[in-house]
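Help wanted!
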Amino acid sequence: MTLTTLAVLVPLLPFLGAVGGLLLGRTAPGFARPLAVLPTATAFVLAVVVAVRQGSGPATDAATRLTPTGSVPVDLALHLDGFAVLIAVLVGLVATCVQLYSTAYLRHDPRYASYSALVSLFTAAMFLVVYTGDLMVLLVGWEIMGICSYFLVGHYWETEVARAASLKAFLVTKLGDVPFLIGVFALAADAGTFRINGILTAATHGEIAHPTVVGLLLLAGVAGKSAQFPLHTWLPDAMAGPTPVSALIHAATMVAAGIYLVARLLPVFEASTVTLAVLGVLAAVTMIGSALAALAQDDIKRVLAYSTIGQLGYMAAALAVGDRSAAVFHLVSHGAFKALLFLAAGVVIHAAGTNSLAAMSRMGDLGKRVPDAMWTMGIALAALAAIPPFSGFFSKESVLRAAEHAASGHAEGVPSAVGWLVLVAALLTAVLTAGYATRLFLLAFRGRGATAPEAHGREPAAMTVVLWVLAVPTLAFGAVALVPSLLDLPAWLDGNALAPTLVTSILGVGLAVVGILATYGAWQAAATRRGAPLGAVVTAEAAEEEPALTEAAALQTHEQVYGDVAAAQDPADPGRLLLGPLFEPASHGFRLDALYAKLFVRPVLAASGLVRFLDREVVETYVRGAGGLPRLLGALVRRTQTGNVQTYISVLLAGSVILAVLVAVGA
Amino acid sequence: MSDALEVILRLLAVLVAFLVLPLVVGQTEHKVMAHMQGRLGPMYAGGFHGWAQLVADGVKFAQKEDVVPADADRKIFQLAPAVALLPYLLVLIAIPIGPGGLVGQDIDAGLFFVLAVMGVGVLGSLMAGWASANKFSLLGGLRSAAQLMSYELPMLLAAASVAMAAGTLSLPGIVDAYAWWWTPWQLIGAVVFFTAGLAELQRPPFDMPVADSEIIFGAYTEYTGMRFALFLLAEYAGIVVLCGLTTVLFLGGWHGPWSDSLGWLWTLLKTAALAFVVIWLRVTYPRLREDQLQRFAWTVLIPLALTQIALTGVVKVVIS
Amino acid sequence: MHLAYPAVLAALLFSVGLYGVLARRNAILVLMSVELMLNAVNLNLVAFDVWLRDTLHAGQALTLFVIVVAAAEIGIGLAIVLLVYRNRGSSDVDRLTDLAEHGPHDPHDPQGEGDGPSAPEEKAEAAA
Amino acid sequence: MNVAAAHPGFLSPTGVEIVFVLVGVATLAAAVVSVTTKQLVHAALWLVVALGGVAVEYLLLTAEFIAWVQVLIYVGSVVVLVLFGLMLTKAPIGRSPDADSGNRIAALAVAVAAAGTLVWVVVDAFRSTWIDVDGAPQGSTKVTGEILFRHWVLPFEALSVLLLAALVGAIVLSRKQSRQQPGER
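Answered by r_m:
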């Protein structure tokens, strides 16, 4: 098979799997699992084959036109280069792991068939986004992902939280997508084509007439999809979906799409300094804010969600300083360890029967009950905190190096101020990242207290095996990628050097160690308060004695038991000690949602109330008034409707006689 | 002038036939039934073989008081026998007896005329039944009307088959076109026609509308004297007409040895034989129930008649 | 023969039938009057056919067709009338006013269900 | 019409014309009685007279076949059906006080107006038109059969389908009522 055929098969297989799953899911439930796992796994293998064949060679392009589409043609185009094939491998790996994991994690779920089909569709859409060479086709995949995320986040639609979260995810991302669509059209109108290659050629030759406007419009969509400030608020709430979905969305697919798009279209953004500056500021704000918020979260998945936002900020920062290799490098390594983190968190939640860190910190032997999760999560947290041998260290160092490069004014077209801003923010975030990673680990696995409920027995093998599979790239990818004889990553990408430099390494690792030590200290300082029983934390006892068996049940009772989705009144929280007065706002995402509610939601509601009033009271009155005369006439005419057929015929015939006479006389 | 004279003479002859033949049939019925059933009563009047029985009956009818029920619709009540009788007189005009214009009036669409006019006779039954102000009469009238409507269809279809075979609607024309093998060819049609005709005349075994053990005497319950005699006369006239028609249509009419000179005799002989069959059937078969009557018409006679038409059509195409 | 004779006779017959259709209350009598009107038309058709000596004899053919249609019409019409009579105990045309438009404030049977207070009794009578 | 000048006037009628007018008057009178009498069954019987009169008029117009069809279908079947209907709907013996509906006056006005208009128009148009009825008969069975099955076969077949539909329809209508009210038979 040719490379093109293989590449076409990659998105097609999960798509067919999704169609099959949706069609057969109800009638033949036995096929749901094979239909979910096999196409995705095959697509992963094919993606690897594509990646190996493509390698570091020149980009492969193929296109076919289905039908003429007016002045700006739309092609089914394929564009394979190092970026695309690398991310496709990541997507395939994570999706396969998620599907495998889901077979065990959702084994009791009645809607598993539709769930797995939607995950397959999601995967197919992401493959499409990655491989396509046409902006319009990319948009198709982009929107399919939006829809799928809506359905998947709302998978537990019986719970109020999930319904609200799915709606929020959909609306907020669409809020970004509208300007994004306009931006795409503006870009295509300027470049005269939807083909990305053509656009890039136009951008490098300066033929884009309005680079700033286009760039900012596109950035809105990117911010929505990749959860950058100020459109990031949907992501923490999206934790209401099943944990594997969170892993999929956060690690490889949805949020990565935004970063990937900017990476593909970087020349367009580079054409405008303003855009880069805006991107840098957004990235900086996102990084620091999300790291602070992560330090204050009680829900283990929300901690991870904010960390995702922060890591996406890193990638955005790398893009802001014009180094897409670093961004994609971090994207890939982050994808691996973040998927691992979520899936391990799923195991932990499964074992603990809750997703509250405060509750976990009062369970004595959680770490011993799920050793696989503890070890793999430890590895992944170390990667997140950028501790040297792990992959996260290398990728984050490449970002820092790029920022330093720009700060020192060596990057073309990037103001050094942006570089400095990004560098400082990234270093600050490194401290906080290490801090919340440590806090998460300590609270989850170093708890002390009553034995955790033994309701579940051992975790299924499918779940633990997946964890160790993902632990491999988390451990080794960074180092392996940079050894030229093994996997010459820079050659696959733009060719920029990605290896860590001494200064940034020392700086980054040092700051991380500072964060770890500070958190550990705070944790030790709060040791005495850790004796407080769970009753001090919860506001109400769980309704049932039995711990929650499924994530849906945990979600349902969470608010009732802990009083708040985001935070618990846990005095032993080291984050509380570290953040001080900042803790309360940070745990609620700096009250951004409340601000939005005040700024946007309330005026919209008021306006709709006004419109309703105008329609109901004012317009309706006119309509009613206009109806009066016809009604009067109708009442008059109604009197002639006696129901007596003979009267009708009499009148009819009298009329025709008169007509006949008139005609006869007239003639 | 001779034209008018000829017409008057023909009509007179028809009238005479109309007055004589039904009486002959009636007398025959008395005798035949008496012999078949071993009855002695009709054998006494007048001495030899009870020859004056019919005369005695006539005298009896003439003597009876003509009663009209108090609640009855007088005019219609009185008019009904005439309406029942007249069509048969009209029909008789069109039936040919012998070759060479030995017919009351050669009508172009004779067959059609005969069937159409016979259909009018039903009005007499209806009028009589309704005007009597008697529920048995009304039921009988409705029943006989329903029966006549049902059996009209197979009769028409059977007649149509013959018309197809002969290629004309004129009764003399049909007899002219006759050949001996028509009788086996049109056998089904003949049976259907004859049976349906019997039913139209409400002769046993199709006499449910006037069955005395069921609804007294149907539409004629309230009639006495001469008016009743007229109804009886209509029935016997009907037998004559039916037998004559069957003879003309299916049995070749005047065809036979020496048909040039003795044609009229053949016709009369065949008619008489059929009349005998009619009487014979009366004493042989039990009465059909009302629903059996209708079912017989719709599920037996009509399909048979349609079969006959198909057969006729096929043979006609084959031999042409 | 003058064409005026059959034509005038047809016109008068038609008018008589028209009067019957409009003035008769019993539905069966209305149907009878319709037959009269159809006959008037048939008479016209035949007269004009004979006058024109049409080689296709369209007038006579059409007359036959009209007669056939009239027979079908009377069959169906009577079936309907009998059904109405059995359901309501009456075949009076001017009492079949279910389609009458009652005023908005008219309390009289808003569904247009019955045709007067005596209808149920008559129905019961008919059923008996 | 080339014979227009040759034909006799209205004041010297031919024998056929005299018979036609006489029968026509009888027909019209029967029709008038039929639509005005208060005795329902009498109305139907007068209708028989009127229809028979029309049949005779057909004969006078040399349309023989149609005349017999008229007798067979109208007198033999349609009127019988009508009588059936009248008897099944309990037509009383004697006068029905409510045989006519309320709009007699309007009906009379419309009918008279229609009659006046039609007669005026017809007389105006065909005052001097002459039908030649002495030639070959226009409606013999042979002629009618030939045109019917040579030129009018398709309408004829369509009509047979219509009749079948009417038959089925009548059966369906009758069956329905017997199923709804099984006690009533």
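OP: Thanks! One thing I noticed: The two ends of chain C are 58 Å apart (CA to CA).
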